Amino acid sequence: MGDVPVQPIFNSPEYGVQAFLWWKPDIAIRDLNLVKEMGFGWVKQEFPWREIEGIQKGRYDWYRPDLIVSEAEAAGIKLLVRLDRQPFWAEPADNQYKENQPPADYQDFGDFCGAVASRYRGRIAAYQVWNEPNLSREWGERPPNPVEYTALLKACYEAIKAADPEAIVISAGLAPTGTGLPVAIPDTEFLQGMYDAGAAAYFDALGVHAPGFKAPPELPPEAAVSPEYGGGRWFAFRHVEDMRAIMVANGDGHKQVVILEMGWTLDQVNPDYAWYAVDEATQAEYLVRAYQYARENWQPWIGLMTTVYIANSDWTPEDEQWWWSIVLPDGTPRKAYFALRDMEK
């Protein structure tokens, strides 16, 4: 199928960053101010299902979500909320106590999605439904399955739209990978599996993840097949274009793409990440150039682009996420923060 005109729901692009506002209200306010001072209009925040409806079905604790929604409003920042992380009461009886997995009854998740969207109707702008379901570690350590994820997405989408029709529903960011079953499914294959299962009816924008690995942001995906960059198209930031091509081929080109995670790591500690680490100046430069490349080459189909991270206050250098962050856990900005603050938007 050929491409069709894009029907934008975001400016092309819009600017976001992921933060961790859940546990400490004073730090949440500090970090929202950092986002505002960057000139970024969006913050991405997890709303873990087990922290809201963790005791029993229908019993909700809204204390922290209420604070976050109110503080984001006060800062004039739009919220993108990620919904996942099951309560243990909802788990399959034969696969319990997993960090992240779909519930035994997908409607339980749908009911939760609807409860959040109903409480914050008109106040939460967008929702991300799950995270990296093409990896077994985000799917209860079981083999990922695009048909199962599509069913979960449908339950959440329909509940959100019933409660807040104006809210934007974004499919889960898929992990760029070439690893196969049972550990993972490459993101391109998983996305096609979603389309084959009818997922196009259940998201307003496609979620993708776009880590830069070792490559500069302008590097074409075919060049990342070189061993220097990792040996696969998915090692390029511009692998986003591969995902876009699958949308277009499935007649879904009228929708925009949302980058739910993007960045370059400084990691010198964790061997799985250190091979593609960059220095602070390069991290800053590549992030700015990634936004510039998208603005110059991906309009109008690119929507929100979300950098990782404003760090969690509890992270240490032992945590791999610490090395991706543009702000340290104590609130000290890295070079990338200033570069993103000062870039043309």
What can you tell me about this protein's structure?
The chain is of the alpha/beta class. It has one domain (14-342): TIM Barrel (Alpha-Beta Barrel), CATH 3.20.20. The chain has helices spanning 25-38, 49-52, 63-75, 106-119, 146-163, 187-196, 240-249, 271-274, 280-297, 320-324, 335-342; strands spanning 14-18, 42-48, 78-84, 126-131, 168-173, 205-211, 256-263, 302-307. Strands 5-4-3-2-1-8-7-6 form an eight-stranded parallel beta sheet. Helix 4 (106-119) packs parallel to helix 5 (146-163), helix 5 (146-163) packs across helix 6 and helix 9 runs parallel beside helix 11. The two termini are 33 Å apart.
- In helices, the fraction of residues equals 25-40%
Number of strands: 8
Which architecture per CATH?
Answer: Alpha-Beta Barrel
The CATH superfamily label reads Glycosidases
Shape: globular
CATH class: Alpha Beta
Uncertain ranges? none
Q: Quickly count the helices.
A: 11
Report the portion of residues in β strands: 15-25%
The helix-and-strand class reads: alpha/beta
For the sheet with most strands, the description reads:
8 strands, parallel
CATH fold category name: TIM Barrel
**What is the element string, with H for helices and E for strands?**
EHEHHEHEHEHEHEHHEHH
Q: What is the quaternary state of this protein?
A: single chain
Strand order within the widest beta sheet: 5-4-3-2-1-8-7-6
Average pLDDT score:
97
Summarize, please.
The protein is of the alpha/beta class.
